Amino acid sequence: MPEGDTVWQAARRLHDALAGKTLTRSDLRVPRYATADLTGRTVLDVTPRGKHLLTRVEGGLTLHSHLRMDGSWRVYAGGQRWNGGPSHQIRAILGNADRTAVGYRLPVLELLRTADEDRAVGHLGPDLLGPDWDPDLALANLLKDPARPLGEALLDQRNLAGIGNVFKSELCFLLGVTPWLPVGELPADRAAKLPELARRLLEFNRERPIRSTTGRRGQDLFVYGRARRPCLRCRTPVRLADQGDGSRERPTYWCPHCQPGPTRSR
């Protein structure tokens, strides 16, 4: 599941493969950009912004993509077989003399002027892994709607950018509250440490092939994906329910003993 850490990793792979090199192949397989041709242009950089990827190209152009739930970018050497999915799932191909980057199942793909990047990412809050990170602003954003459930507030990229469903559940566990607790009822000491705790989790995982919030080998996550299995702290069975704002429900995990507060049953 792509979250801020995995998007950061994808950006680094793409940057290493493409940046500073001239494109010899360009194929954007979405109707709006079917005739767009980036060949002959040099890729300047690939930058992550929360869960978004910005591939900047010579001539003031940016290819903006978002992976959402199951999109991916794969990088292949010359002659290597592409194995990211069937060909009809390919949405973008960017290649140079040495490497080819292939975007599979990309739900968001748009070509825009670099000067207009704010159209795509200007709404985002402080990026947990970005140079604009501001913990005070992130916390202020979260507290703007004190009645909103904490889990929903954490997933709102306008508050802070990079948290997905896994880190949402894990953060709530580490804070000792349920994801349904109104964010304004989060004890002040825990609210104060929330932004930096979130940042530390993502920083710890941005270099790791297997995401971990526990630091324990073989027991990588405290609650996410552990429905009905014993809590790693108290052995109480972890519970599972859906959480969302009505437009989209997300599976949410918590320990009823370690995380007191309002809940919801699946």
TrEMBL record:
<keyword id="KW-0378">Hydrolase</keyword>
<keyword id="KW-0227">DNA damage</keyword>
<keyword id="KW-0862">Zinc</keyword>
<keyword id="KW-0238">DNA-binding</keyword>
<keyword id="KW-0234">DNA repair</keyword>
<keyword id="KW-0326">Glycosidase</keyword>
<keyword id="KW-0863">Zinc-finger</keyword>
<dbReference type="InterPro" id="IPR035937">
    <property type="entry name" value="FPG_N"/>
</dbReference>
<dbReference type="InterPro" id="IPR000214">
    <property type="entry name" value="Znf_DNA_glyclase/AP_lyase"/>
</dbReference>
<dbReference type="InterPro" id="IPR044090">
    <property type="entry name" value="Nei2_N"/>
</dbReference>
<keyword id="KW-0456">Lyase</keyword>
<keyword id="KW-0511">Multifunctional enzyme</keyword>
<protein>
    <recommendedName>
        <fullName>DNA-(apurinic or apyrimidinic site) lyase</fullName>
        <ecNumber>4.2.99.18</ecNumber>
    </recommendedName>
</protein>
<comment type="similarity">
    <text>Belongs to the FPG family.</text>
</comment>
<dbReference type="InterPro" id="IPR012319">
    <property type="entry name" value="FPG_cat"/>
</dbReference>
<feature type="domain" description="Formamidopyrimidine-DNA glycosylase catalytic">
    <location>
        <begin position="2"/>
        <end position="103"/>
    </location>
</feature>
<dbReference type="Pfam" id="PF01149">
    <property type="entry name" value="Fapy_DNA_glyco"/>
</dbReference>
<feature type="domain" description="FPG-type">
    <location>
        <begin position="222"/>
        <end position="260"/>
    </location>
</feature>
<dbReference type="InterPro" id="IPR010979">
    <property type="entry name" value="Ribosomal_uS13-like_H2TH"/>
</dbReference>
<keyword id="KW-0479">Metal-binding</keyword>
<dbReference type="InterPro" id="IPR015886">
    <property type="entry name" value="H2TH_FPG"/>
</dbReference>
